Amino acid sequence: MCVIDHAPDIRDEIATERLNLRRARTSDAAAIVRLASDFAICSMSTRMPFPYGLGDAEAFVRLVSAQKRERENTFVIDNGDDGVVGVLGFHQPPDAPLEMGYWIGRPYWGRGYATEAARAALGWAGNDWRRKMVVAGHFADNAASANVLVKSGFLYTGEVQKRHSRARRKVVATRMMVWLA
Length: 181
Fold this sequence. Notes:
By secondary structure, the protein is an alpha+beta fold. Helices cover 27% and strands 30% of the residues.
């Protein structure tokens, strides 16, 4: 486990050719709920409830605004033209390695946004945040997420964990992957 004793000078935004990864704002809640209220989004995450409502989005924004940045960082993925298209975050459970998760709203699938955001965020994590290892998992029935993680530089560990999906209300096989800076 890698813990930094002090918060480094961490950028609040990560810019790519088409995207801006930035801190969530209270004004993002409506856009987040518009995209995240889709079962196809919630069902591929461990923590998102379904149905996903405005109260959930507002609680999410409050939660990520209070993150201890030396341990966790969450970004809204904004494409400029349409605004919020998804979310990407890093969190570190107790006694576990740093983990990355993300989602992209269904209207924006197939445009390469998830891969572009993940690559930029991992570069930021390695360079700005000085992290050397990040893990991620994808539900075994989510081939699109597997492709994003592979294209972003993750390698399979061979470990399959049983993780609970709050939206599905059941345990789902999760294939674990690792990224090394």
